[in-house]
Fold:
Amino acid sequence: MSTDYQKAREALGARLRELRFSAADGRLTGTALAGKLGWPGSKVSKLELGRQTATPEDLKQWAEACGRPAAYEELRARLAGFESHIRSWRRQLVAGHKPVQDAHNEAQAGSKVLRAWESSWIVGILQTPDYARAVLTRFADLHQSPRDIEAAVRSRVKRQELLYAGGRSYHILLWEPVLRSLICSPSVLAAQLDRLAGVIGMDTVELGIVPLGAPLKVPPGHGFWIYDDREVVTETWHAELWLDDSDTLALYLRTWKTLRESAVYGTGAHKLISAARRALNAS
Structure:
């Protein structure tokens, strides 16, 4: 968890403690507040110490139990401030996967120069519907989230309209193992590789592939997007991170440029895709 994120949780916890101490009917103990809310006592402690992230409903109940309902808007604004940077999958996927896809569509539509590195799967902007369906289904299974798969697939595929709309350029790097990863059936992967080969030569897309045997100056690491050198979007198993501070941007841009030095383009990229396609046929 990032230091800035943890500091923000602790600051919110300190504010919750202030409200408990200054409750309208007199200072409340943690035990008394937990009793009013029907919570285990440990939850009050964890929230105040920044060891647990409050939900909006937690904040509303806390403010009301302290006799300070008007404080809810302030608390909610604090929570939104740091959640806008670190968005847990647990929270994001409460309403399903489509809203997440819609958010990425909006972010990409508002950008002109987009850079990506992916070491785990084909990036969404280049996915076929069947490949997208397989990936989203795997994540729905993992997170035990609402299964709005078809709506999410439609949203992700709609993003590809940006490739043809003009006015923006995509600079995408993939690690070669992505071409062979059977996160989907072999037939779906075969069609996905055909789609990928067809992207090479598009005037809005620069597709580079880092061969498995290429010398690397940095480890492959996790995938990420950089939007207009103003925002980085990356994800972990538990959360999606939207980061915009200058030091982080500089680091990710330097990482992308370093990985790019190991990539092949054009004919070289086409050869790697064709080799992966032949390997599927032979298996």
Summary: The chain has two domains: 3-84, 88-282. The chain has a mean pLDDT of 93.
